[in-house]
């Protein structure tokens, strides 16, 4: 019995020594490997394939034997690298690719997290707690420096954080009396938005448009054929508009409005930004038109804040435009 215990201790010591040796080695390999191969080189190859997310060693199974699972994983790696045939044989071509990819690969690397990866390609979990983008801490939805989304996921906030608020004001630019006759992407309306308490995402704007032609009201689409909403120099969304896109107010026949939705305009907590609307007008405008823009009714602007609460805001201020070759007095 004592001999068995001593033998077990010796065997366990040998395993620990083997692991430590692998940890200290570099990743360069110089031998061919295939079904039935064993040893340190196989452990290093298996660890490398784990780091590429193509191999998962079953729980309780030791590394060091090149079996069918390793062969399949190696074939997947070969396919990723364009190596043909992708037969799962570790020969000179695959070895050269391996040695170019690997630096120091040691047991303990997280499967599915190749070097530099931020998220595990098998589980979707973070590979590291180090932010990949300045201003985007782990779990952050919006960049604390720029206010832009930290990922390509939808900009609607998740249910967390605090309910934010917006201070909504008419921007100083564009100013009244912009001439929009037969022009492209003329800035016609601007809102200055400041977020407090949390980051806020503006989702929708109901824009009131009144067009008067020689004393008579007309559908705005007789003048306007394209509307764009801008975040600085970036177009958030654009609409090619027809008369059907404008709705006449049931209580005021001189007023039409249009709903501009899906904006995703992000205002970070404490930041102030300007949202701008531009018009492109139809050609052949040969008579004077006066155009008045404003928010439509009291809930003209809809936004979503950090705890997924939707809030509505009114817009204080209108803007007057015209379609004449010279400014009005």
The number of helical runs is 4
Distance between the termini: 110 Å
User: How many DSSP E strands?
Assistant: 14
Dominant shape: elongated
CATH topology of the largest domain: Immunoglobulin-like
Radius of gyration: 32 Å
Q: What is the helical fraction, as a range of percent? A: 10-25%
Structural class: alpha+beta
Number of domains: 2
Name the CATH class of the largest domain.
Mainly Beta
Beta-strand residue fraction: 25-35%
Q: What pattern of helices and strands is seen along the backbone?
A: HHHHEEEEEEEEEEEEEE
List keywords for this structure.
329 residues; alpha+beta; Muramoyl-pentapeptide Carboxypeptidase, domain 1; Immunoglobulin-like; 2 domains; 14 strands; disordered C terminus
Summary?
With 329 residues, the protein is α+β, with helices and mostly antiparallel strands.
């Amino acid at each position: 019995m004592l001999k068995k215990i001593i033998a077990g201790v010796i065997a366990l010591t040998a395993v620990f020594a083997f692991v430590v040796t692998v940890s200290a080695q570099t990743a360069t390999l110089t031998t061919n490997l295939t079904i039935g191969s064993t040893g340190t080189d196989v452990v290093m190859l298996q660890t490398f394939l784990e780091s590429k997310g193509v191999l998962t060693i079953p729980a309780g199974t030791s590394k060091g034997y090149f079996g069918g699972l390793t062969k399949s994983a190696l074939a997947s790696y070969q396919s990723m690298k364009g190596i043909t045939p992708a037969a799962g044989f570790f020969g000179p071509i695959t070895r050269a690719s391996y040695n170019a990819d690997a630096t120091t690969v040691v047991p303990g690397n997280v499967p599915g997290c190749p070097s530099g990866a931020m998220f595990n390609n098998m589980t979707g979990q973070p590979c590291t707690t180090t932010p990949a983008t300045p201003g985007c801490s782990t779990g952050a939805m919006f960049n604390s420096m720029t206010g832009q989304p930290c990922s390509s996921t939808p900009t609607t906030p998740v249910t967390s954080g605090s309910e934010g608020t917006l201070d909504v004001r008419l921007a100083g630019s564009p100013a009244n009396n912009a001439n929009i006759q037969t022009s492209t992407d003329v800035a016609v309306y601007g809102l200055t938005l400041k977020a407090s308490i949390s980051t806020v995402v503006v989702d929708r704007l109901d824009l009131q448009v009144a067009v008067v032609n020689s004393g008579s009201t007309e559908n705005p689409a007789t003048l306007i054929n394209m509307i764009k909403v801008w975040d600085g120099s970036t177009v958030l969304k654009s609409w090619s508009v027809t008369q059907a896109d404008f709705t006449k107010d049931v209580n005021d026949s001189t007023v039409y409005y249009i709903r501009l939705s899906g904006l995703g305009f992000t205002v970070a907590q404490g930041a102030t930004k300007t949202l701008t609307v531009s018009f492109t007008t139809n050609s052949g405008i040969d008579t004077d038109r006066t155009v008045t823009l404003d928010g439509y009714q009291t809930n003209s602007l809809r936004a979503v804040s950090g705890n997924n609460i939707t809030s509505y805001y009114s817009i204080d201020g209108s803007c007057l435009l015209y379609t004449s070759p010279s400014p009005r007095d």
